[in-house]
Amino acid sequence: MLSRLSHSLNRIAEMICCVVLLTMTLVVALQVVCRYLLGASLTWSEEFARYSLVWITFLGGSIALKKRAHMGVQALMDALPPKARHLIETITLIGILGFLSIATLKGIQLALFNMAQHSPAMGLPVGIVYFAVPTGSVLMLVHVTEQLTTLVRSFPVRERGRNR
After folding, report:
1. Residue ranges of the domains in the chain?
2. Are the beta carbons of 138 and 104 closer than 8 angstroms?
3. Which residue would you say has higher pLDDT here, 120 or 75?
4. Could you read off the pLDDT of 105-134 as tens digits, one per residue?
5. What is the pLDDT of residue 160?
6. Helix, strand, or coil (residue 122)
């Protein structure tokens, strides 16, 4: 069930990133056309592009985590024996869970704190932009929990009653 949830949330994040990236590209292209061909700038396009990039960054981070595409020292991990590799991967995932839990809580606090402030060009509550942090963090929490569950289930089980 957790695997299906992780997969579904990842697909949604991928679709949102595609739509936001496409929209951002179109808005920036429209800004160039308006500025250089029509001689009139769109006052909100830069702000829209900046805020879109913030959301793409955090949603994209969750997509990369799901696909295990974040940087790592794979050569070092491959050189370790299987039990040590499992242990280091488990400790790493638990550390990531801790960090993402804090990022989620503090991100919510920061977003709520900034809801009263409005962006200058679009007039959006700035908290909407800051909600990218807890949104991405929650998605990453789901993916890391799924990866940790899979990793723990793959540990070799010792046979009971057997001496070493």
Report:
1. 2-153
2. yes
3. 120
4. 999 999 999 999 999 999 999 999 999 999
5. 47
6. coil
User: Using CA atoms, how far apart are residues 91 and 81, in angstroms rounded to an integer?
Assistant: 16
3-class secondary structure, 7: helix
CA distance 145 to 150: 9
CA distances from 13 to 56, 60, 94, 98, 157 (A): 9, 8, 23, 22, 36
pLDDT digits (tens, 9 = 90+) for 12-38: 999 999 999 999 999 999 999 999 898
The DSSP annotation for 71-127 comes to ---HHHHHHS-HHHHHHHHHHHHHHHHHHHHHHHHHHHHHHHHTTT-B-TTT--BHH
C-alpha to C-alpha distances, 109 to 105, 114, 115, nearest whole angstrom: 6, 9, 10
pTM of the model: 0.86
Structure tokens that stand for 81 in this block? 């024996």
E-assigned strands of the chain?
none
Cα dihedral across residues 57, 58, 59, 61: positive or negative: positive
Angle at 143 between CA 12 and CA 141, to 5 degrees: 105
| Residue 10 confidence (pLDDT) above 70 | yes
The token pair that represents 109 in the structure block? 């606090």
